[in-house]
Amino acid sequence: MARKLEWQQVGVSSGPSFLSPGYITAKNSELLFTSGCVGNDPKTGEYPVEVEEQAKNAMENLKTVLSAASTSIDNVLKVLLFVSDGSYAPAVNKIYQEYFPGKPARSCIVVSFPDPKLKVELECVAEIPESK
């Protein structure tokens, strides 16, 4: 089982409240590395105009991938989040905190997507719990 690394352990009195500086996995941990999950509607394939809706869709699409791999949001260790505009960060962070109360390690990068409709993408590393 993964152990959370706390801010105090790396010599920082308090870090960003919505993420952890890292996780340490067990030697027998099985890990899932996801590809980017985008904010399209899974039924229609369309991208909502609002960044909040795209962020929610991206999180739900990620949950689907995690479930297919026998894991869940609770087992996510690291998230790499991409946004197409830095001004989207507060709205995306709000939704992110709803989906990731365990505060996994996270990076957020502003990028230029090939499709201008795309505003949010995320990928992660998740631990797959041992089958009992």
Give descriptors for this structure.
single chain; 132 residues; 60s Ribosomal Protein L30, Chain: A; 5-stranded mixed beta sheet; two-stranded antiparallel sheet; globular; LADA_0B08790g1_1; YjgF/YER057c/UK114; deaminase activity; RutC-like_sf
Strand content: 25-35%
Helix content: 10-25%
Largest sheet: 5 strands, mixed
Tell me the total number of β-strands.
7
* Class from secondary-structure proportions: alpha+beta
**Which stretches of 5+ consecutive residues score pLDDT under 50?**
none
Q: Can you give a write-up of this model?
A:
The protein has 132 residues and is α+β, with helices and mostly antiparallel strands. The protein has a single domain (3-128), classed as 2-Layer Sandwich (60s Ribosomal Protein L30, Chain: A), CATH 3.30.1330.40. 22% of the residues lie in helices and 27% in strands. The chain contains two helices and seven strands, in the order ββββαβαββ. Strands 3, 4, 5, 6 and 7 form a five-stranded mixed sheet that branches. Strands 1-2 form a two-stranded antiparallel ribbon. Helix 1 runs parallel beside helix 2. The longest helix is centred in the middle third of the chain and has 18 residues, at 51-68. The chain is globular, with a radius of gyration of 15 Å. The mean pLDDT is 87.
